[in-house]
Amino acid sequence: MSKAKVLTTEQLEQFETEGYLIIRGLFRKEELAEIEEVFEEISQTAVPGYFEPELDRAADDPLKRYPRVMHPHRFNDKAMRYMLHQPVLAVLRELYGEPALAAQSMFYYKPPGSRGQALHQDNFYLKVEPGNCIAAWTAIDAADEENGALLVVPKTSQHEISCPETADEQESFTTHYIKPPKDKTAIPAVMGKGDVLFFNGNLIHGSYRNRSKNRFRRAFICHYANESAVRIASHYRPLFKEDGTIVYLESNPDGGPCGSEFETLYPH
After folding, report:
1. For residue 107, what are the domain limits?
2. Left, alpha or beta for 148 (phi > 0: left; psi -120 to 50: alpha)?
3. Residue 59 predicted with pLDDT over 80
């Protein structure tokens, strides 16, 4: 039996031409509340290798107290469940034209005053081949220009993966920066709680600094590969099918457009 379609022809065309698509209200209130509870609990202690806050850090750098949580699905069952959230996977199935494999989960707290993330391309890191990664970026808080919304550069999904320049450390907590083409401009992805932004792994994107006084901009972010992919960077293995079955793609040793030396000097 074929599965019911969840995307319109117009939505599929937007993803294809613009490189991204926002689905409003994909997560229900009770699901958002459970995600909030999970990561509030995680925020109170360290999880070595995945979440290493400086719990007594002064306010000079809020991201020292609230760094991003890397791969929470590897140590938290609820994070794993939401990485394999069926409404998200249903959208991905149609964007890919085949089932998706879950490769990574992350949680960003992005407290008031914290730096943003310089423009970059996700498949520079994931190195999914053949095919591409797709991100599913879920707004746990409403996101706008004041509290550090995501920035996307429309129509750059066909832009080849590029070797980054060095980012401005005063504005970005990461070191890589991809300069958009001269005829393209970054725009904010304004989102409400529970909205999900899907975007292509070549799309140039980043985020604003959180300039609000008292608003976090929490986000649950997962990356996926197409089921027909053969290789992925080793950091993202193993992957998971929709039913939770573990999948090991080949490790992609390709150094990418910069070669392996750049990866060593400027790790993501």
Report:
1. 9-45+58-114+127-142+193-200+212-265
2. left
3. no
